[in-house]
Amino acid sequence: MITEKQAKELRKQIERKPSLAWDVMDKQETDEAFKLAERYKTFLDAKTEREAMSAIVNAVVKSGFKNADDRSEGGKYYKVLRNKAAALAVMGKKPLSEGSRIVAAHIDSPRLDLKQNPLYEEVELAFLKTHYYGGIRKYQWLARPLAMHGKVVKSDGIEFNFIIGESDSDPVFTIADLLPHLAGKVQSDKKLSEAFEGEKLNILVGSLPLGNNKIKDRFKLHVLNYLYEKYGMIEEDFTTAEIELVPAGKARDIGFDKSLVGAYGQDDRICAFTALEALLGTKKPEFTSVALFYDKEEIGSEGNTAAQSRFLEEFVSDLFAKAGSEASERILRKALIASTAISADVNGALDPDFQDVHDKRNAARLGYGVCITKFTGSGGKGGANDANAEYLGLLRRIFNENSIVWQTGELGKVDIGGGGTIAKYLASYGMEIVDCGPAVLSMHSPFEISSKADIYMTFKAYKAFFAAK
Q1: Is position 252 within any domain?
Q2: What pLDDT score does 438 carry?
Q3: What is the pLDDT of residue 14?
Q4: Domain holding 148: CATH number?
Q5: Which helix (H) or strand (E) holds 419?
Q6: 188-213: string of b/e by CB count within 10 Å (b at 16+)?
Q7: Which residues have C-beta within 8 Å of that of residue 336, sequence separation ≥ 6?
Q8: Residue 166 — φ and ψ, nearest 5°?
């Protein structure tokens, strides 16, 4: 029979106890984490996939990356697809045929999109109709200030972007909610899924009439006249525009200690930012390091700028050409199969007020570092990528050797939770891949919460992955 002292020593040797990152980080790393978070909050000002793409391209061009479509050389390349997806690479010492280290994130987030014929008036108010994009909880978007971010292509081919609602001098927009005195039968007595209708997520945009009461639709007409005078925009331009409604306002520190970040769009721009920062700091890696930034993940990765497109194959083919050889289809397949990848995406953090939806032994927690999510999907791992032991062992070694605080997690209890990422689409090439990113509270809400310690550890994890031999 062992003694209490022997049991304590044995426990130290063989039992795994998750570490709070703040307990492990020294003052220097804590300071670095807070500095990194300031840059991250600035990155979060890019609230749409187009704006995120512009921020990414500006950063890599400033760091000396060359456009892969140009003849220029240099060993650091980028490629942009339709202003909504991008691929970056730092060429490695080993030939591309031996595979690459890939970190792939997505830059789209749940939001409200304007319909193609959105503008109308009702009871002397002007509105725009929307269709929500991605998985939202509809009630969270009511009675809050919203900003409008748009891309318009006019009939003469002229294009322009606009942002309204982010500057202090700008107006904002909103969706009116029903007062509690009248909500009983209409909302309160219904299931949450039925109480708030997607068709009623209509944006209030004006109440000032144009002219006298003899003019038809004069509230709608006043809005159209404003858009025409300000942007030269006519109503038909809505049909070819991409206009998104997102929460207004900048990313903010949360808490007296400012240890948390609160903002819209952290799923998955938290991973896009840390992957970008990690790649920018990568010098002469053993394997070619690749960062991918995809669109349309929140709606199943469908479309020509999503992970199901052939963009990765095109980019790796470009890299072969830059290395001085053309890649046949067979060589390209072998290079992708030989690659190892991280699907850089978030997990849902254990919510103190709703602990019953989690398996607490297997739930990710704020402040406990980057989270490895072995499998996604739902129920019996349906629609999942399920990483193998050999690959998980490789990541474990890389993280431990580089003093990275990490944890594992799954998205809720077996018959309650579930979700998907881009992992399964890159896995279709045969490469090793697993989901790995920080845990986030209030995920998919207009104001998500992350830990500055987790942001820092995620950055360290991606950087170590790129540098690993």
Answers
A1: no
A2: 98
A3: 87
A4: 2.30.250.10
A5: strand 418-419
A6: eeeeeeeebeeeebbbebbeebbeee
A7: 99, 312, 313, 316, 429, 430, 431
A8: -100, -25
Tens-digit pLDDT profile for residues 145-204: 999 999 999 999 999 999 999 999 999 999 999 998 888 888 888 888 888 999 999 999
193 within a domain of the structure (yes/no): yes
Give residue for tokens 């942001």: 455
Q: What is the mean pLDDT of the chain?
A: 95
What is the pLDDT at residue 379?
82
Clarify whether residues 318 and 460 are in a common domain.
yes
Q: What is the pTM of this model?
A: 0.95
pLDDT category at 319 given cuts 50, 70, 90 is very high
What's the domain count of the chain?
Answer: 2
Can you give the residue range of the structural domain that contains 211?
Answer: 111-247
What residue has token string 């840059």? 39
Q: Are residues 67 and 157 in the same domain?
A: no
Whether 172 and 278 map to the same domain: the answer is no
> Distances from the Cα of 174 to the Cαs of 46, 162, 246, 447, in angstroms?
20, 18, 10, 16
Q: Which two tokens stand for residue 202?
A: 């209509």
Asked whether residue 253 is assigned to any structural domain, the reply reads no
Nearest to 78 by CA among 67, 92, 64, 62: 67
Per residue in 245-261, pLDDT tens?
A: 999 999 999 999 999 99
CA angle 386, 387, 389 (to 5 degrees): 130
